[in-house]
Every structure is written in C-alpha cells, then in structure tokens.
Design brief:
10 helices, 220 residues, alpha/beta, globular, six-stranded parallel β-sheet, single chain
C-alpha cells in the first residue's frame, strides 16, 4: 500500500548510475568480429542499447543459443569492469541528499542480477539502495512498466511521488508508462531521442543545474 507523503528516486543502472556503454559496445563488437560481422553505432543503438539480451541475441546471431550468448556476453563485461569504477558524476551527492530528505531509493534494471549486484559494488553504491529490481525476475521486463511499478509497490510510494532516471528508449518508455516523472540521462542518446521515448526533461548527469528544479517536485 502506498503511504501518503513517501517519495522515491528510482534509477536504471547501465548508463544511468555508471558509464558502462563503452564496455558493452566493446564486448558486442568482439562477439560480432568473432562471427565475421561488424558492429555499427546504429545497430547498437537500435537493436542492443536498453534491450533485453534474450530479445536481442536471436536477431543478432540467429541459430545460436540466446541464453548461452547472454551468459558469455555478461561474463566478458564483468571481466572488463573493475572495482573502483566511478559512478555517474553527481550520483553520490544526490544519494546523500536523498538520505537527508528521507526519499526512498531503488535501482530498476534489465541487467541480470549477477551483473546488477556487481556493477553496484564496482561503483561503491550497493549499500545505498534498499531495493534492486531485476527485469528478468518480474512478470515482464522493460519496456513494460512492470519493473518500475513493482519497485513502487515494494517501497510503498505512489507513481506521482517518484522521479525515474533512465538513459535508453526502452527504459524511458517503461519509466513514462509507470506514471513516475521520467528524466532522461544524456549519457548515450541526444535529448530528442529520449523525449521521443517519453522523457519529461533530460540532464547530462547529476551535476546538471536543471536537476535542482526536478528535485523540487519532491520537496514541494
């Protein structure tokens, strides 16, 4: 049951709390090359970025086991991501403010749980979040809003009392459909692409001056 007055910040993970796209791109490019193919930025943005692995791999590499490909890809990604990786600029200060304000905090991601836990440990923020929602463990993953709606139910907050941070078209569609205030992070896509997917506003990172006006929605 939602509790009146409760507020929350909900975050995607890849590209939202850390700049992980270069590593993901590197791994996919490597897998493409091993099969005599070439990965382009357009393929990455339209068929991979923000999409679930089990949706992407059957189209990228037909005839191969998508689960095995997904497991291999994520293992290679973790090998490249080291502990001590910095989080998105301004993220730690934003979480400190959330603690002071009493705002609830959750991560909502389509990444496998092993990756989600590892990424949060790598950037030193795992203990800052009371909830980690994994798309695979929900009835439906992003772009369906269910992962965000589940986070809201678990935290006991109303959609209109949540700010949701996303960086991909599929994630942004999920955020917008959840009823939360959808904010796009321009870590990989321009503003027009994020707004097209449902962003109310976009910011470069959590040091963007526009963030203060966004947070005022919860302080009002």
């Amino acid at each position: 049951m939602a509790i009146a007055g409760s507020k929350a910040l909900l975050f995607d993970l890849d590209g939202t709390l850390l700049l992980s796209d270069p590593l993901h791109y590197e791994v996919f490019a490597e897998m493409f090359a091993e099969r005599g193919k070439t990965l382009t930025q357009q393929i990455y943005e339209t068929q991979i970025h923000g999409n679930h692995n089990l949706d992407s791999f059957p189209k990228l590499f037909p005839g191969e086991d998508p689960q095995a490909l997904s497991d291999e890809k994520e293992a290679r990604f973790r090998d490249r991501l080291g502990l001590g990786t910095p989080p998105m600029p301004g993220a730690e200060a934003l979480l400190d403010r959330a603690d002071r304000e009493g705002w609830r905090l959750a991560v909502v991601t389509n990444a496998p749980r092993e990756n989600g836990e590892y990424m949060l440990e790598a950037i030193g923020l795992r203990m800052r979040f009371e909830l980690l929602i994994i798309g695979d463990e929900c009835a439906r993953a992003k772009p369906d809003p269910e992962p965000y709606l589940l986070a809201m139910r678990e935290l006991g907050v109303r959609p209109q009392d949540c700010i949701v941070f996303e960086d991909s078209p599929s994630g942004m569609r999920a955020a917008a459909r959840s009823g939360g205030y959808a904010v796009g992070i321009r870590s990989g896509l321009p503003e027009d692409r994020l707004r097209e997917a449902g962003a109310k506003i976009t910011i470069a990172d959590y040091e963007d001056p526009a963030l203060e006006g966004i947070l005022a929605r919860l302080s009002a």
